[in-house]
Amino acid sequence: MRKIDLRGKHALVLGVANQRSLAWAIGDALGEAGCKLAFTYQGERLQKNVNKLAQKYPGSPVMACDVTSEEQVDGVFARVEKDFKKLDILVHSIAFARQEDLKGDYRDTTLEGWRTALEISAFSLVHLTNRAVELMPREGGSILALTYLASQKVVPNYNVMGSAKAALEHAVRQLAAELGPEKIRVNAISAGPVPTLSARGISGFTGMASHHAKAAPLGRNVSPQEVGDAGLFLCSPMASGITGEILFVDAGYNIMGV
Ligand code: NAP
């Protein structure tokens, strides 16, 4: 039987806030496949949550990283280089928009709200990729981002985050084309609704999630573990022929018309 074996590989996982985070499920799946892990957290209050996952994989560095702080990003990559010498996998599971930009009329989005959402949720992928490729070995690497259907379809209250996800998905394709010659693959998972901290910041999330569950071909929502397993697959050699792809892990919701 073929099994995913990531022993000897090193991953940097950004975006674990707590046990419900999609980054937690992806990090855990990578760790169980033998991958060495480094984690980041944003804000002291989340450090202890991230430590819980890191303790399961002894020797995993846990570092503070607000992606808008160049000093912290520098610190993260310096530590990864020191501890790991190389980086095979980058997991970008980060998104943020101001609360006031996740409700009401989209046309009320301010330039500041737009900049914040796009900088943290989309530009950070471009910037972190640029830093990560410096540490990726000659045999290549894998970069994974998390997106949502609101990049393509209108979802109430997702507002500026839909614009950020559209930019993120474009960045995935652009980076995949550019980094293909270096054997670095760049993909994203478009996950169905999962009740995480960020998801709960979207007004009406619970109603939206139950609509998804009713309309999806599988008649339910996906679990974080299902997203984690798909992340493991995309980051592993099993997906060596896949790049620039947006893989829906949404119980099939996206294929439905009426
Ligand atoms: P989550 O657990 O809240 O994770 C989001 C992470 O982004 C948090 O760790 C958050 O830290 C971090 N973050 C926000 N601003 C940051 C910054 N400036 N620098 C560094 N980190 C920052 O929620 P999640 O649902 O797992 O989200 C992960 C990814 O999945 C996001 O890209 C999200 O859009 C995507 N996604 C989620 C769903 C869903 O339904 N849950 C569906 C599709 C796609 P703080 O908590 O400290 O802000």
Verbal overview:
This protein is an alpha/beta fold and 258 residues long. The chain has a single domain (10-252), classed as NAD(P)-binding Rossmann-like Domain (Rossmann fold). The chain contains eight helices and seven strands. Strands 3-2-1-4-5-6-7 form a seven-stranded parallel beta sheet, sandwiched between helices. Strand 1, helix 1 and strand 2 form a beta-alpha-beta unit. Helix 1 crosses helix 8 (224-235) and helix 4 (111-133) runs parallel beside helix 5 (160-179). The longest helix is centred in the middle third of the chain and has 23 residues, at 111-133. It is globular and about 45 Å long. The structure holds NADP nicotinamide-adenine-dinucleotide phosphate.
Task: Summarize the SSE layout with pairings.
Elements: E1 10-14, H1 22-32, E2 36-41, H2 44-56, E3 62-64, H3 70-84, E4 89-92, H4 111-133, E5 141-147, H5 160-179, E6 184-191, H6 197-200, H7 205-215, H8 224-235, E7 246-249
Parallel strand pairs: 1-2, 1-4, 2-3, 4-5, 5-6, 6-7
Helix pairs in contact: 1-8, 4-5
The structure holds NADP nicotinamide-adenine-dinucleotide phosphate.
